[in-house]
Amino acid sequence: MRASAIHSAEDARRLARRRLPWMVFDYIDGAAGTEVGATRNRAALDAMTLRPRILRDVSDRSLSTSVFGTPAQRPFGIAPMGMCNLAAPGADLMLARLAARYSIPLGVSTVASTPMEEMIETAQGNAWFQLYFSGDGAGTFKLAERARDAGYETLVLTVDVPEVGRRPRELRHGFTMPFRIGPRQFLDFALHPRWSLSALAKGRPQMANFHMAGYSFDRTESRAKASWDTLARLRDMWSGNLVVKGVLDAEDAVALKEAGVDAIQVSSHGARQLDSAPTPISALSDIRQAVGAEYPLFFDSGLRSGEDALKALVRGADFVFFGRILQFAIAAGAEAGLQQLWEVLSEETSIALAQIGATSVAAAKAGSKV
């Protein structure tokens, strides 16, 4: 019943808000500071328009594309998200199975609830490992080596978290990983028994990638020591595709291109880091102009619909990623909810292509005027 009630990302969010403990919902939904940045991101996307065209034969449309030369059935994938199993037990693997079905990249977070080896196996190879630099970097490079050994061909270095942003909604609930259960949290869980009982049955979500010798992870540990030298070391040791995620400045983008990075992901971390950051959709155009037409650019942050995805694509992105709305769909309706929202996003994109007189994303980009 819950899955069939999802007709938009907002439906999924509304249903998830009912089901999830307040602490968990606000962890997924929250943003940095006063959340003005998140509001500004949404307003910038809403203000963008697409150019309708008429009397073109758009009866035969395709959402297929390719990423790093690999075919993908959709022009959008799954952004790396930490602790997805908070949305529902097994959420990580639901996302991995979705990636396998549609041959789209699944971002496997450093702080995933499921080991990276199980994720790429379930995703049938359609997985990219997202890497955080942390502390002195020793553990970071161990994780990169482990990802390489597990068969990952694409590494995504996230660079917009020198320090974890202050997210007041998390702080008000006393959100920590692992959970510290006090009276307030106990009441929160008690008032959401369905989630609490399923979580109790499956066990508390863990940061699964840190169960290895000589490495521990503190979510709040400073990541401020990362530098261009760090990037150079990583480029030297990683022979596969190297993506740098969290870029909003054109000068930085040019420097990354010159440093041998294979692609850039324009992102504000879903507005979870710097409340005053520019809107990613606005930065995308400047970065595309700076790096040239052929350089691979990816995009995430704030996308809520197929039309949003198409806006980013015609603005200069080669591929885009959805994030927290997928967790909301899982919280609302488990794997059926995720599939339902994915079909909604696919249909929204296909219909938007028809409305602008295009039969593919490539055609839309070629003829775009926004």
From TrEMBL:
CDD domains: alpha_hydroxyacid_oxid_FMN
Keyword Oxidoreductase: yes
Domain FMN hydroxy acid dehydrogenase, chain residue ranges per copy: 1-370
This protein's UniProt keywords: Flavoprotein, FMN, Oxidoreductase
Cofactor(s) this protein cannot do without: FMN
Alphabetical list of InterPro entries matching this protein: Aldolase_TIM (IPR013785), Alpha-hydoxy_acid_DH_FMN (IPR012133), FMN-dep_DH (IPR000262), FMN_HAD (IPR037396)
Homology family: Belongs to the FMN-dependent alpha-hydroxy acid dehydrogenase family.
Record's protein name: Alpha-hydroxy-acid oxidizing protein
Organism: Ruegeria spongiae
